[in-house]
Amino acid sequence: MILPKSQQIQPSGQLLSFIADKDLIQATDKLMSAIMTAKNRVENDPYHNVIDPFSALVDAAYQKIYIEDWIIQEKARQIQKALQNALGDFHQDILGSMPGWKSMGRNGSYDIENAEMKIIAEIKNKYNTMNARSALSVYDNLQRHLDYSGGKATKAYLVEIIPKHPGAYEQPFTPGERGTPRPSRKDIIKIDGKSFYDLASGHTNALRKVYDALPSVLERLIGLPSTELTGSDYFDELFNRVYTTL
Q1: How many CB atoms are located within 10 Å of the residue 56 CB?
Q2: Which residues neighbour 14 within 8 Å (Cβ) at sequence distance 6 or greater?
Q3: What SS3 class is residue 25?
């Protein structure tokens, strides 16, 4: 995915103080590769994921478009879904590359840890990534690691990078089962992504700084001038709508 060195735009200095450029670039390149893999798969076999013919028929009729145009939309939807899944890995890679933090990989019992701070965390890209059953599974897993770590982990976080509502929160994570929530514990916490980035990095507005650095990283990787992404105020508005209480 990365351009040959002769075509890459050379860095003028470290992009972020709390993560090395090579780690930021590697995480972004991994994300872009995941998108390309999804795009190639969808283009070669758009029916890899079963398409509901009733949904296709009714939706095409509702939009008053031809089925060929609907298929184009469906391909874009499948690629977008793959991107959302890959973004969880992206944030895990970024957070796990910060000083003191370690990513446990895709098959880890949890996503990241900080041995010195005695913190473990599960990273979810969006507040609605989990259903009720998977939320219970995450809680039980975090509880188990806290209770049997022998003091190596004393606090666990469920991190929702994209929160449901604007604004910061740090509250007990208490998913429910048939109307009965799991016990509220001060050491099992649900937190928004912006707040956790600040906690993990030790820097204010760290998530925003990553967001602002991405155009430069993408410029290095794919040759797209960063001004193509930073020339519009809409990207700034999108970020503020997610994390700022209006």
Answers
A1: 15
A2: 20, 21
A3: helix
Contact assessment for residue 39 and residue 68, using Cβ atoms and an 8 Å cutoff: no
pLDDT tens-digit series, residues 111-159:
999 999 999 999 999 999 999 999 999 999 999 999 999 999 999 999 9
Write the DSSP string, 162-218.
E-SSSS--EEE---EETTEEPPP-TTEEEEEHHHHHHHHHSSTTHHHHHHHHHHHHH
Q: Contact, 30 vs 222, CB < 8 A?
A: no
Token digits of residue 90: 């992206």
CA–CA dist 34, 29 (Å, integer): 9
Rounded alpha-carbon distances, angstroms, from residue 74 to 12, 40, 70: 41, 14, 6
User: How far apart, in whole angstroms, are the C-alpha atoms of residue 125 and residue 92?
Assistant: 9
Cα angle 35, 40, 42 (rounded to 5 degrees) comes to: 95
- pTM exceeds cut of 0.90: no
The answer to whether 80 and 86 are in contact (CB under 8 A) is: no
What lies within 8 Å, CB to CB, of 47 at 6+ separation is none
Read off the amino acid at residue 24: L
